[in-house]
Every structure is written in structure tokens, then in C-alpha cells.
């Protein structure tokens, strides 16, 4: 790999000035930028290792199957993943599949494709579990979360520091006031 | 501009800002970079002298630039920038692989004069998808 150990001198000698500020982003650009931020969250990062090699290649290059780069429509995301269009719309409307909207259409970036592949890879029973969580009354959900927390606490007793950190990092991304 | 030219000038002439496709295309379309609220070595545009050389580059960037805390989807585009331009210059941080163009926080920064080209990792290799010409 090409390297240069002396390059810092030239850069440090250069006159230090701030670059010119550009105009603010449009609402559409901001919507898309939010999708890029989601890509960097621990809960999405945790999904990447579960993707197959083929799925990872499609995340890098969706045009190999969809014919163009991001964003993808609901139908295109369905075609790429094997989910039905209705499933895609359902998960998107319930906030599980990240998307942004343009003229009422749901549009998906790479983070949406990663989450969609993860849903495809999950067992049907797991998807039913997620669907229940999305639709259950909050008081019922509180009880389920309580049980889940107790079970996770037991698992953490035997976890390595690295495993525990990975698990709690995902939990810590939950918004709370 | 070719990938080979970028590799040959890495560090001395060119640096590389690795990012996801969405942010890369924002830079391509608008020639701007959105800075974050804070960072270890200060706020600004971060880049590295690790060039987009082969399939191992992504792993190398994730480990050496992000401490392992990123996925390949976040770094499958390499935006090549000049080390210095009329508006300022990248400075090497205390991290041997890391360079920083200092700016204010949460700014949209124009990259006029810095921008050179963008390479994308696809089909196991890097290819130029845009350049300044």
C-alpha cells in the first residue's frame, strides 16, 4: 500500500482556513441524510453479520437486481428481498423498515435493504413476535419487556465483556426521555 | 482519473473520505460534506491516506479508521480529496491513518477545490463513478 511518512509537514505548513460554508440541505436531502445516520446505529450494525454474502453484495450494488442504485421503491425492495410488497409497506408503516417519502411514495436506502434482508432471514415465528410487539397495547408490552429484560440479565451473567457490550449497545439506542 | 492514479498519489496528493453511498452521492451532487456535532480529534471532514486498492481495503478502513465500529455498507465509497486547496488543508491527527479538515460543528461544508473523484466498491473491486472533470 502506498504510504508517505512526510506528508504531514506540507499539510501543517499550509495556511489554515475554514472552507466556505455551503447552503443548507433541502428537506429531501435531509430526509435521505437521516437514513444515512440510521445506517450507523448499533441496532443496524448488529444486523450486518447475519446477512449472506449475496445479500451483502446486493446492499453494495442493488442495481445488479433492481436495475438502478438507491433509492428503491416498495416493489423493488420486495423483488430484491422476497418479501411481498404488502409486507414491505406494513413493516415500513410500522417503523420497522426505515424509509423516507416523496410524493407519498415510500423510498428505501441501503439501511432499509439491510433491515429487510434481516427480516427475510428471520424465522416466521420471529416475524410474528415482532408484529405482536408492533401492535400490542403498551401495558402488555411493558410486561413482555420486563420478562425479556430478566431473561437477558440471566444471559449476561455468562456473557463476555464484548458480548455484553454488543447487546447493551443495541438496547441503549432506544429513545427515552 | 483512474483508481491507479489515486493510489499512486495517496497521502502525498490525495486523501480518501470513506462513507456510504448516500453521503457519497450527496458529495458528488452538491460538493458538500455535512459535519457532525463532535469527534475525537475535533470537528471537520475526516480522511485517510489508505487508498481504495482492493477487496481488503474495506476491512482495513473499518479496523484502522473506525476501530472496528462500522459495517462495510458505511464505507463502500471512497471520496478522493486533495490534501490542500485554496480554502484550507487537511492536517494529520495523532492517529497515523487519520487526517482532518477542521470546520465548525453541524455545518454543511463546501468541498470546492478539494474534491477529486469518487470510487465505489462493487463486484469485489473499486471503480471510479465520478470525477471533477
Sum up the structure in keywords:
heterodimer; A: mainly alpha; Multidrug-efflux Transporter Regulator, Chain: A, Domain 2; 2 domains; three-stranded antiparallel β-sheet; B: 133 residues; alpha+beta; 20% helix
**Counting H and I runs of at least 4 residues, what is the number of helices of chain A?**
11
Kindly give the count of domains of chain A.
Answer: 2
Report strand % of chain B. Answer: 35-45%
Number of helices of chain B: 3
Which CATH first-tier class of the largest domain in chain A would you pick?
Answer: Mainly Alpha
Spatial strand sequence of the major β-sheet of chain A: 1-3-2
CATH topology of the largest domain in chain A: Multidrug-efflux Transporter Regulator, Chain: A, Domain 2
Question: What are the secondary-structure elements of chain A, in order, as H or E?
Answer: HHHHHEHHEEHHHH
Q: Approximately what portion of the residues of chain A adopt beta-strand conformation?
A: 5-15%
What structural class should be given to the helix and strand makeup of chain A? mainly alpha
Extract low-pLDDT stretches of chain A: 1-17
Stretches with pLDDT under 50, minimum 5 residues of chain B = none
Cα separation of the termini of chain A: 47 Å
Q: Biggest sheet of chain B, strands in spatial order? A: 1-4-10-11
Averaged pLDDT of chain B: 91
Radius of gyration of chain A: 21 Å
